[in-house]
Design goal:
The chain is of the alpha/beta class. It folds into two domains: 15-95, Metallocarboxypeptidase-like (Alpha-Beta Plaits); 103-407, Zn peptidases (Aminopeptidase, 3-Layer(aba) Sandwich), CATH 3.40.630. 37% of the residues lie in helices and 18% in strands. It has 13 helices and 14 strands. The protein has helices at 3-15, 36-47, 73-82, 94-103, 120-133, 178-192, 196-204, 215-220, 273-285, 317-335, 344-347, 355-363, 388-407, and strands at 27-31, 52-53, 64-68, 87-91, 138-145, 151-157, 164-170, 205-210, 233-234, 237-238, 289-297, 301-304, 340-343, 367-373. It has an eight-stranded mixed β-sheet with strand order 5-6-8-7-11-14-12-13, with helices on both faces. Helix 6 (178-192) crosses helix 13 (388-407). Keywords: Carboxypeptidase, Disulfide bond, Hydrolase, Metal-binding, Metalloprotease, Protease, Secreted, Signal, Zinc.
C-alpha cells in the first residue's frame, strides 16, 4: 500500500472517529486557595473555559484539580505567579496514565472480566447473558434510549415477589469509568456471592441495575478518554452534562448555559433523551422504590440531597446521615478507605438538575445517595485497573450495610 493510501486512510479514520485523542504533555495540578483573592482568581480562571477543572472551586483551603494542556502551560504558570498560588502536580503526563490504564485490558469473555474496564458492548453482552444463567431471577430491561439510538440497558434482579426496590445507576458522567465497573461488580456479587450477608440482602430486595446510563458518552471515551457529557448536538458543541439536566431545580446553581461547557445543563430540563427516557422508566417503578444510588468519581464521599443549595435537606436528613455514617464505617473496615458523609451542596459543591435530587424530591424515596468513589485526586478519573476490585468490594460493603439497616428498622 502506498503512502498516499496510508495518509488517506488515516484521515478517514480520524474523520469517522477511530483515532483516539492524545493527551501527551497534559498535566493535572492541585491548587489550594489560601486567600479570598486567590479563590476569586481560580473562579475567574475556571470561567474562561480554557482548562478542564476536574473538581470545582469551592472554598478556602480546599484543593482544586485542573488539567493544563501543553500550549497553555506557560500562561498557567504566569497566572499562578501573579496570584501567588501554589500548585502541586498530581498527574505528570495524562496520556501516560491513560496508556497505563488501558495496558492490561483483556477481551470480553462470557464470564465477564471484572478486573478490567469493559467497553459498552462487553458490558451489554454480559448483561444480556444473565437471564439464561439465572432464569426466573434476572431479566434484562431497557431503561431508555440515547441520542445515537443506543439502549440504556440494565437488569431487574428479583428472588421473590413483594420486595421493595433498589435502583443503581452508573456512568452518567462518561469519563468516570470506575462507576460502571463498580456497579457491574455489585451486580455480579448479588448473583454469585455465597456470603450470608450478601445473600440475605440480595434476596430481600428487587434490584434495578444500570451500569451505564450515558451510553453515547461512554462509547465516545474510546476516542476522548476524558469526555464527560452526552453526545447530543448543541450548536457548535456536542453534549450536555447529563447530571445537570434533570427536572428538579434545573439551572439553579453549579451549571452552565454555554453549550461548550462541561457543566452545560442542556437547553431545558430533560432535553437529553437519555434522561427523559430513564425518568419515565423510574416513574414506572417508583411506587415500589425504597433506595436510589448513583455512582460517580472521584472524592470518596457519600452525598445526601440536595445539590442546588445547602438550606434544603430531605425530611429524613437525620436518618440519611445515620445510615450513611454506618455505611462508610463498614466500607472503611476492608481497606481503611476513608469517606465523608454530608449533604451534596455543603460537602462537594453547588449543583442543580441532579438525578438524585429529582428522585428524592419527586418520589420521596427513603434512601437516596450519590457515591463519589475512589480516589481523592492522585489518579482522579484515571483510576488504575488494579483498584477496580477493591473499590467494588468496599462499596458493596457500604450498600449491604444500608440495606441491613433498613431491614432492621421499622418504618
Amino acid at each position: 500500500m502506498n503512502i498516499v493510501a496510508l495518509v488517506l486512510l488515516s484521515i478517514i479514520g480520524f474523520c469517522i472517529g477511530l483515532t483516539p485523542l492524545l493527551y501527551n504533555g497534559y498535566k493535572v495540578y492541585r491548587v489550594i486557595p489560601k486567600t479570598f483573592g486567590q479563590l476569586v482568581a481560580l473562579r475567574n480562571l475556571e470561567s474562561e473555559g480554557l482548562y478542564d477543572f476536574w473538581s470545582e472551586v469551592r472554598s478556602l483551603h480546599e484543593g482544586v484539580d485542573l488539567m493544563v494542556p501543553p500550549n497553555l502551560m506557560k500562561n498557567f504558570k504566569i497566572y499562578l505567579e501573579n496570584f501567588n498560588l501554589d500548585a502541586q502536580i498530581f498527574i505528570e503526563d495524562v496520556q501516560k496514565s491513560i496508556d497505563k490504564e488501558r495496558s492490561n485490558h483483556r477481551a470480553f469473555s462470557p464470564r465477564h472480566n471484572l478486573k478490567s474496564y469493559q467497553t459498552l458492548d462487553e458490558m451489554n453482552n454480559w448483561l444480556q447473558s444473565l437471564p439464561a444463567l439465572y432464569p426466573g431471577i434476572v431479566e434484562t430491561v431497557v431503561g431508555g434510549i440515547s441520542y445515537e439510538s443506543r439502549k440504556i440497558l440494565g437488569v431487574h434482579v428479583s428472588y421473590k415477589s413483594g420486595n421493595k426496590a433498589v435502583f443503581l445507576e452508573g456512568g452518567i458522567h462518561a469519563r468516570e469509568w470506575i462507576a460502571p465497573a463498580t456497579v457491574t461488580f455489585i451486580l455480579n456479587e448479588l448473583l454469585t456471592s455465597s456470603d450470608p450477608s450478601i445473600r440475605s440482602v440480595a434476596q430481600s430486595r428487587d434490584w434495578y441495575i444500570f451500569p451505564c446510563v450515558n451510553p453515547d458518552g461512554y462509547e465516545y471515551t474510546k476516542i476522548d478518554r476524558l469526555w464527560r457529557k452526552t453526545r447530543s448536538r448543541n450548536g457548535k458543541c456536542f453534549g450536555a452534562d447529563a447530571n445537570r439536566n434533570w427536572g428538579y431545580k434545573w439551572m439553579q446553581g453549579g451549571s452552565n448555559s454555554n453549550s461548550c461547557s462541561n457543566n452545560f445543563a442542556g437547553s431545558a430540563p430533560f432535553s437529553e433523551i437519555e434522561n427523559l427516557s430513564l425518568s419515565q422508566f423510574i416513574d414506572s417503578i417508583s411506587a415500589n422504590l425504597e433506595v436510589y444510588l448513583s455512582f460517580h468519581s472521584y472524592s470518596q464521599l457519600l452525598l445526601i440531597p440536595f445539590g442546588h443549595q445547602g438550606l434544603e435537606v430531605p425530611k429524613n436528613n437525620e436518618e440519611l446521615h445515620y445510615v450513611g455514617n454506618k455505611a462508610i464505617n463498614a466500607l472503611a473496615k476492608r481497606y481503611g478507605t476513608k469517606y465523608e458523609v454530608g449533604n451534596f451542596a455543603d460537602t462537594l459543591y453547588i449543583a442543580s438538575g441532579l438525578s438524585t435530587d429529582w428522585v428524592a424530591a419527586k418520589y420521596k424515596v427513603r434512601l437516596v445517595y450519590t457515591f463519589e468513589l475512589r480516589d481523592t485526586g492522585k489518579d482522579g478519573f484515571l483510576l488504575p485497573e488494579e483498584q477496580i476490585i477493591p473499590t467494588g468490594q468496599e462499596t458493596l460493603d457500604a450498600v449491604v450495610s444500608m440495606i441491613k439497616q433498613i431491614n432492621n428498622t421499622c418504618v
